[in-house]
Task: structure prediction
Amino acid sequence: MHRVHSNNDYIVLLNDAEILNPFDALAKILKKFRSVERASDELYEILIASFRSGQWKKHESPLLLYKKFRHIIKLIEVAWLINKNRNDLFSDDLIPAYATLQGGEEKSLCIQDEFSSALLNLEKIFCSNAMRVLKSVLYEFFLLGLEPSYIEHLDLELQNVEVFRSIDQLINTVYKLHELSSALQGPIFNRSTWHEYLKEHKMRDTIYDYDYGLDEIFYLTSKDKLLSGISISIEILNAEGYWKSHEHPGNIIPLFYEYLFLIDEFWRTWLGALEAKIDLSVPWKYPKNVQKSLKSINRLNLTHAWTFLANKFAKKDITYWYKLWEGCLQTLLSDSPCPQRKMRSYCSMLELIEGMIHLSELVCFMSWENPFDEETYL
Result:
């Protein structure tokens, strides 16, 4: 998450149907919590784990804390979508429709006022903290809760408990909106706004936006550490109860966000090559010493880089690889061995990432005239 672009808010976890109808998405998420108190409890479990050593071990596996983190992120995204559409609140036929069904226009107006008041609270929350800030703060606390052995990649300025209170207020507000929306009859929002956000969402080439490019992949994490993460991941996938005898599950999280960064950026490079109609049969222009080093990992066939990428990207888009990435990460945190039916797919993804780690320091030899800014490799 530390590479995610800091000047933009956008949806990551919601699917198309949830973007088009965030109130339905809200109902499904809150059904898992059963009450607003339980939703807040999950939030504060993350906060407590970040302060109390070994708290994560009280859960069945680190995966449970990760799922709580994702639940809250989804609530933040739903709240953001609702807030973006607040100016298109209520159709003209809402009040008479409710009055007819419930037997009183006065009661309808009262509920409508409560609904509008809750929306105003939501607006204040996002005026004080952009969605990207809420997500980033939650991520930093969540990661600390899984006790990584190194924290140099963390942004300690984001350890702001006040922002946590804003997230708690957001949870209470969307729960109120959920309760009131079920009482109101008829259309509440003009859905054209959400259609515009869905259109914008579908135009994204990558899962995230980033502050850095491939030329800075080893700025935060060394090549050796990224490669060792592949070996550790395979070990964990084959193990049972791994986290019962090992520490620091938080080390897996930043590694996997680095891996997602590689997938995103090479996917973007692949799309750019297709759009520019690059001859993918032309090999990258490696000097002899590089060719020699690549032969030592000949199983990846990196001497023909476009072929390596084509084998992964030609028939499978970024959504496919993102789902594999997410599934693999959850399996690594689950404390259970990987099901055999999924092992081959996860190993294929890890092989893709391993190849990208090597290729990321070789993009200056790409068989593509000026694929990046000219100053990048001066």
Observations:
- The mean pLDDT is 87.
- The first helix runs from residue 16 to 20.
- The CA atoms of residues 278 and 368 lie 7 Å apart.
